[in-house]
Structure formats: C-alpha cells, structure tokens
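Reviewer comment 2.1 asked that we show a complete input and output for one of the modelled complexes. We chose the iron/sulfur cluster case, as it is the one discussed in the main text.
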Amino acid sequence: MNSLQKLEILADAAKYDASCASSGAARKDSTGGKGVGSTGGTGICHSYTPDGRCISLLKVLLTNVCLYDCHYCINRRSSNVRRARFTPEEVVDLTLSFYKRNYIEGLFLSSGIVRSADYTMELVIKVAKSLREQHHFRGYIHLKTIPEASPELIAEAGKYADRLSINVELPTPEGLKILAPEKNVHRTRDAMATIQSKITETKETCKELKKANSRVKKPTYASGQSTQMIVGADQSNDSQFLNRAGDLYGNFKLRRVYYSAFSPIPEPSVILPLKSPPLIREHRLYQADWLMRFYKFDVNELTTAQAPNLELDIDPKLSWALRNRSFFPIDLNRSPLEMLFRIPGLGVRNAQRIVGLRRHHAVRLEDLVKLRVNLKKTLPFMICVNHNPAKLELDSAALRAKFAPPPEQIEMDFSTPIIVPKATSMTAQQEAKHGEF
Ligand code: SF4
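Response of the prediction step:
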C-alpha cells in the first residue's frame, strides 16, 4: 500500500475527532531563517481566526488498527474496515511536504492502540520529537494522548506538542462502561491531572526565570489540553454533559470541551442509536459551554432538575432569562458588568463597551444601535435612558413565543435514510457564531 492509499484511509478515519482547534497555542518564532512552519515569525504567513485558531491541519491517524472495541468508533477491533498503518517517518515526511506546499499549517495526530498503550504513545511521540528536533518544525502540533499509557510518556508528549487532548467520550462512567468497556474514567482523570501539573509546573518555571531576568532557556510545554464528548450515542442528558464539562474546566483547566453529535458509522454496533441527534443539540451545548466560560453562568443555572436538557428552539441564555424574569429588567446605566452579561442578545464585548460608554454619558438606545446589539432579544430585558419595557410584557406568557421559531408541520419521510458523516470540526465562522448570544 503506498502513502497516498494509506493517507486516504487514515485521514478518513480521523475525521470523527472534533477536538483539533488550536486556540491559545503559543506562536513560535522562525526569525533568522531557522526552522520551518513558524506560526508567528517573519517570512512565513499564517492566517488566524479572531480567536487565534490555526485553521488548516494535517489531521491523520498513525494507524486505524485498534485493540479496543469502543462501540461508537469506526476503528474498533470488531469493525470491518480497511486497515492501514503509517510509520512515524512517513507521517513526518507527509507533514513536512504538505507544509512546504502550503497545504497545512500544522499536524493533528491521533492513533488506534496497537500492541500496547505505551508502544503506541511512543510512536506518536517519535513523530512529534522528530518534527521538532530533527526538522525544526515550528508549526502547530496537536497530539492525542492515550490515558492508559504511562504518566512519563503522557508528560513527555507535551514537550513537543502545542496542545494535548484526551477524549472523555461520554459524560458518565455508566455510559462509558456500556459503550467503551475498556476505557476507564479514573485513568482519564489521572492522565489529565498529569498533563495539567506539567503545564502548571512549566508556567511557574518560566515565571521564575522571567522574574530573575535569567538567560536560561525557558522550558516549553503544551499550552493546554482539550477533550471531546460524543452527544447522542447514549442516554446522557445535557445536564450530565455540562456538569462533566464544568468539572473538567474546574479541575483540569481544560482549554476546550468539544461536543460532537454522534454520527452513525458504517456497520454500526447494535447498541448504538440508528440516527444522529439533531445538530442543534450540539450547537446548544456549545452555547451553554460558552455561558459557563465567558458569561459567568454556573452549570446548575443552565438546566433544571425537571428539564435536564437544553431547549432546542431558543438559546440557553434566553431560556434562563425567561425562567428568571424577576431578575429583569436590568439597568444598563447602573448594573454591574456581571448583570449585563445576563441580558439576552448582549455579548461579552458589547457589555464591556457599554460599561466603558457610561463613564462618559448615559447609555441610550441609539448607542445600542451603533453597537449592533440584537435589539429584538435585548429590549424586553433591559432599561436605559430612553427605554423602559412595560412590566406587562416581561411578565407576559406570550414573550417566549416572540422568540421561538413558528411551529412546523412534521413531515413523514419514508425514503431510505442517507447517512452522511458529519463535518469533523467547527469552521471558523461556526466557532465565531457560538460567541455572541
Ligand atoms: S481506543 Fe480510540 S481508536 Fe480504539 S476503538 Fe476506542 S475510540 Fe476507537
């Protein structure tokens, strides 16, 4: 099998993994003509999305052979798919030649587990180490780590990668037991803790060296870790997903948790659902996740015991506002920033701009128009100099209907379902879209 045929199989097998964004990675410098693939030095131009994300990566598996039998995975042991395996040298060559042709700006490398977790992890590290040390590759590298590998190897991977990730896959140990019986939630947590402690240790060392104005070379280590959870492969509800995400952000300082709507795979295991969940569910989870990270929402505010799933027809912030109407209207001219974050339709940046504006003059509706605030959503929930919503409107049972899309006639579809694998990760525009609501 030649490299192209292998690439066809192994790039296709990697597309189900969504946790490959690079936001927050430190940009390396190739000034002086040393090294290739710099994401920030002069001479080589790279395009970054507003959140700093690198948008073209060679996303590939080292091999799609796997000892494990995770039911949701196309590469599982019992799956009847074509198998292929790259050598570390082949991945290094591919990365460099794709980079030099300007096809990619970095590498996302994952792998099925062959022989043992340690053996596989060693191969993955070999690729990154060779790229960094032999070929001076200074582009972005994201390595998928294997929680079952030894802590020393997991820690070593971070020396060559900008980002590490370990997929949690399912939010509950029960779900994992059914769908990925060989995986263990405790091992995953231990591996995440290993990575987090190395990240913190490196940051501390760098801080001390800077403070001492030392000329000693600062150690480098991955700037963060991320994970992915599959939505809709088991019965877990949104509250369980968000609680798990909250736990990971809080305890392991994860950069991102990705929610990937379960995508039916060819020849699926019988215990999997036949259909994907609606994609809007994945989108609502991203919005709720955004609220926890940037809008200071507590995970328990986003769902309730009676309704553990997010509403699909309206966004989670609006949903919270409609459930907590006594909190409104909020005065744009007097309320603290954290309260402005609660107003539906008002993003973090606009809330900050409003706080800045009111130092100079009282905020008026015209200011909101200039800031291009979503007035339809915002007006019922806020007060400013020339706007005070009628209390009646805020209390009206009809308020929700104003925002929800009109009900649709359900159509029965008797045609054969066409299963299209879903896109691998959010595009830059999609990601940006999650930010303001
Ligand atoms: S360990 Fe990874 S590659 Fe192997 S079956 Fe499970 S999810 Fe797939």
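The mean pLDDT is 84. We note this here for comparison with the apo prediction described in Section 3.2.
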